[in-house]
Amino acid sequence: MSGTPVIQHVAIIGLGLLGGSIGLAIAKHAPGIATTGYDTDPATREKARERELVGTVLDSAAEAVAAADLVILCVPVGAMGFAAEAICDALPAGAIISDVGSSKQSVADALKAALPDHCIIPAHPVAGTEQSGPDAGFAELFEHRWCILTPADDAPTEAVDALSRFWTGLGSNVELMGAEHHDLVLAVTSHIPHLIAYTIVGTASDLEDVTRSEVIKYSAGGFRDFTRIAASDPTMWRDVFLTNKDAVLEMLGRFTEDLTALQRAIRRGDGDALHDLFTKTRAIRRSIIEQGQDDARPDFGRSDHSGDH
Amino acid sequence: MSGTPVIQHVAIIGLGLLGGSIGLAIAKHAPGIATTGYDTDPATREKARERELVGTVLDSAAEAVAAADLVILCVPVGAMGFAAEAICDALPAGAIISDVGSSKQSVADALKAALPDHCIIPAHPVAGTEQSGPDAGFAELFEHRWCILTPADDAPTEAVDALSRFWTGLGSNVELMGAEHHDLVLAVTSHIPHLIAYTIVGTASDLEDVTRSEVIKYSAGGFRDFTRIAASDPTMWRDVFLTNKDAVLEMLGRFTEDLTALQRAIRRGDGDALHDLFTKTRAIRRSIIEQGQDDARPDFGRSDHSGDH
């Protein structure tokens, strides 16, 4: 590869929430870039054509990538290896291969194994909603969100720069870090929160002495917040936990230690320990809002709270 | 008490998020009802006068309740007994005493001990935001939310009816149940979710290998949802856990059992077990939205997601 590659044609493999949003974001922010796309599900391809998620929806992954200088794999992390194999023979030699997976070391390994001679720059835009599929994407998903690139040490600087500029162009902030560190950070900020949310929603569904109807009626006490996250795509999240096992188990261990300490404080009636923790945790919320990573309005500005919104 | 009492004057003790919202909701929905209020904090009383949270803010609890036929205690549940003692001598004989506390058996006991000769109907409007204090209240807080009354078996039917009508008038749906069952239900739908949120935010704050700055930057992966709940009022929540200890510990035990099972599935690489749970939990979200207990828009309709809202 000589000089800094300019990305003129992006192929998107997988046209769900993330893939669809990338296509729409390119159309909004960088309409000069051509886009092609493919999804293994014919119904998703049909919907993608209808919503014009990309310029051209092709009926095979090979056709979709044939003229691309950037290929973004937007499939569950457990399917990355298969997706890479499917495009292997059709890939232009100079194309950059990237992805949007939530765990990075395993994706890097899978892509390297399938495409040993290509330029691979794994990426993770930290953005999403609880919805999934070709109906769920929207052009603004990545605006003011961080996109983490985890290039290997020997990745060509020009390719990393080109991918950084691509994501910046869609409205993201870009950060580089090692895959292993990424997996630890995201275990805390994303994977464990999802695991906890899935668990409490599961626990509440299985109770005998509290009915499901009661759980639903009184969910505004806090529970409903967890149900949003626990409505996320099951296949995507299964794969995240299977592929980021070590970091997830490590962080889960720390969480359960802290929960046990709190349980003990409740059992012993140690109000000061509870009050101290509950005071400390307010500061992080303030920082998140100050740094534009959440809505400052009470209750996320949910529509049922006031006639104003 | 003879005949069905008509509530014409409500005294609100404690003018934070809940007390202030009740005052504003009465002004909006039932402007014929007179309102007086008191808060132990002079700055809160001043702010309450400025925002006109109630018709008249008095400088003592006794003055505030002197002419009331309904007194609503809107203080942390650990302070209910003190608040009841403070109004004891000034209470009109026929007044109904109620509250908004999140645990009900302990409040019923505390009120009964302080006011053995009065008509006590504990209540819990299942509504709130992460904000607190006299600036936080708004008139619509209770609309489409459930308010649970936990009258003792010997509570006068007319008083229960009057209080039900009062809450219905503010836009709430009203349900009656026993205090003990309430405490179990709310342990699941509110107390454990708060405890878990406080814990994970605390865990994330204390890490050494992941910086606080990283936690904040990548919080949109799910973590930020928990920080909202973990920004709730520390004193209120300390008291909830101290006063609903048994139900909280019981439900916490079930949650940690389920979490341990999930941890084992991850360690063993049991993708099917993960996928099954992650699929099951989607149904509850749908029901909550169908029953008007949450915003159907992706990501709660947060403002940063699209130009539309």
From TrEMBL, chains A, B:
Q: Name one GO molecular function term.
A: prephenate dehydrogenase (NAD+) activity
The Gene Ontology biological process terms listed for this entry are: tyrosine biosynthetic process
User: Superkingdom of this entry's organism?
Assistant: Bacteria
What this protein catalyses is:
prephenate + NAD(+) = 3-(4-hydroxyphenyl)pyruvate + CO2 + NADH
- Keyword annotations of the record: Amino-acid biosynthesis, Aromatic amino acid biosynthesis, Membrane, NAD, Oxidoreductase, Transmembrane, Transmembrane helix, Tyrosine biosynthesis
Q: In which pathway does it act?
A: Amino-acid biosynthesis; L-tyrosine biosynthesis; (4-hydroxyphenyl)pyruvate from prephenate (NAD(+) route): step 1/1
- Xref: SUPFAM superfamilies: 6-phosphogluconate dehydrogenase C-terminal domain-like, NAD(P)-binding Rossmann-fold domains
Question: What Enzyme Commission number(s) apply to this enzyme?
Answer: 1.3.1.12
Q: Name one Pfam family in it.
A: PDH_C
Q: Is Membrane tagged as a keyword?
A: yes
Q: Which residues form the Prephenate/arogenate dehydrogenase domain?
A: 8-296
Q: Which InterPro entries match?
A: 6-PGluconate_DH-like_C_sf (IPR008927), NAD(P)-bd_dom_sf (IPR036291), PDH_C (IPR046825), PDH_N (IPR046826), Preph/Arog_dehydrog (IPR050812), Prephen_DH (IPR003099)
* Record carries keyword Magnesium: no
| Protein family per UniProt | Belongs to the prephenate/arogenate dehydrogenase family.
* Name listed for the protein in its UniProt record: prephenate dehydrogenase
Task: Cite the source lineage.
Answer: Bacteria, Pseudomonadati, Pseudomonadota, Alphaproteobacteria, Sphingomonadales
